[in-house]
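Teaching note: in complex prediction, the entire set of molecules is handled at once rather than each chain in isolation. The prompt given to students was simply: 'Predict the structure of this complex.' The entities are:
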Amino acid sequence: MNVQSIEALVQADRVHRSVYTDPALFELEMDRIFGRAWLLVGHESQVRNPGDFFTTRMGREPVIVTRHTDGSVRVLINRCAHRGARVCETAAGSTSEFVCAYHGWTYGTDGRLCGLPLPQGYERPAAESVGGGLPPAARVDTYRGFVFASLAAHGPTLIEFLGPLRASFDDFVERAPAGEVEVAGGVFKHAYHGNWKLVLENHNDTVHPAFVHASSIWAAREQRAAEGGAYSEIGVRQMLQNGAPWEVWENAGLWVAGYGHSWMADYHDDSRLVAALDHPAFAEYRAALERRLGREGAARVLGERRFNSIVYPSCSFMSQFRQLRIVHPIAVDRTVVYAYSFRLEGAPEGMFRDTIAFSNVVNGTGSPILTDDLEVYERTQTGLGVHRSDWVYLGRGHGGEVPDRDGALRGRTGTSEIHIRNQLAAWLEYMTGEA
Amino acid sequence: MSVATPVDLRTEVEPFLYREAWLLDHGRFDEWLGLFTDDATYWIPLQANQTDPLTTSSIVYDDRRLLEVRVRQFQHPRAHARMPAPRTVHQISNVQVVQVEGDALRVVSTLVLVEYRHERQRVWGALVEHGLRRTAAGFRIAAKRVDLVNSEAELDGIVSIF
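The expected output is the structure of the full assembly:
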């Protein structure tokens, strides 16, 4: 597949369906996009102490994220240098070494091969022959505790890559009275039969809720009110918020930045959605935040109203609600999303309970909201397999982009499809650009 | 605290569980909801041996209010994830009454759920625990916990009731 033929797939306001369905393009994506871009692999709180580790994926590559004895975070390909067996089978834990089940080849938390049976059986040291041990990701860096890795030795720095999206991570962390967040409460792993781009194109799509979520909006509207502080309150409020009138979505802020990133903000104020405002824990939380930032500082942090921020191509997160979704492409028509919750350090426990209640209703595998999204991704994938019609139309808001600060562009309205066009522009750049 | 199940108590509880399964397999969700107490919870934990629904996420953790929303959603003409609705068989076995305290009973059972929807059949296995209350109208469910054996797996969306 040459550059010209790929370039023809992405046009100003439309994209060819094969971008979502062609297995050959998917293979190229794994190399040119997931093999190059900075991918979010996790958070430092998952590897707090030397020896701590967890396993995840970078694109399709299985990796181990470790905290080495020198305190640095390492990202290692989870494949024995000897015969290729997966070395670490555990989702998370703490260890001084990784020992392959097959022939006992042993690796340190930096991936270095530090032991194997019968070393005299090789004409030169095995470590030299296999390149040292478990191959590390070419680059690893962190921003505000979030760990990113890239399989490419060259490319933009993490700071350059994130650009104005850094402010979304800042928002995430600044909300914590102690100035730090930690992964807590388990991880949802939900899957769908569809291309990985579909979930990233959906999160900042503000027209879909009224239709995709019509049934949960209706069911929530019919429901009796509950007393303040009820477990169900934040979930019911989110269902209702999905049914906000058009002017709310039109007036929402929708920004895009380089490398395919985007964020959505200002579509609701806290009083409509955040059950915590009615929660006794919230006053305590605000007071704790004010102790660190002062009254004005706390008001500024709490006044930030970012909903979904998307860092293309690996993740989407909700700083205001402490949710992170990491997208794992499995095949051209199969995707797995890992959804994490975070605890605000220094905040009362009631705040975290609200986060968990929110995660169950928004990101849970049995969520009344999410299951309808997954259903629509699958119907979209099915429809994109139709050969008689080749184009996907993405013209909403085209031509209405407004330059904004920090190099970002803003959609003329919050319902613009600017975020999808921007993702596909980045897609094209990765797919046709030089390594 | 664990007691051997007196045979007569088990034979009293079993028809209630079968009735619940029958209602689910025939799409009679309003009647199913009627089996629950006003303060009931319906819980599908995310983690094996999960002890707490409030500080660890759950595949489903519904209080009565959310459970009503969930069941009402099924009726809507645009409940996409249930169009078509899954057809199910709930197979219950290994029923034991493990605790009796006044009007409250703790009943464990195993569940095999066969689910068919959209050209795809899925089979689920689960350990189930019912917290039942004996009332004038018969047993009512105060708490239902369903531990799927694959709760920690990468799972497609779940829209069936267990």
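Point out the following to students. Chain B touches chain A at residues 44, 46-47, 50, 54-63, 65-66, 68-70, 72-73, 76-81, 152-159 (CB under 8 Å). Chain B has three helices and seven strands.
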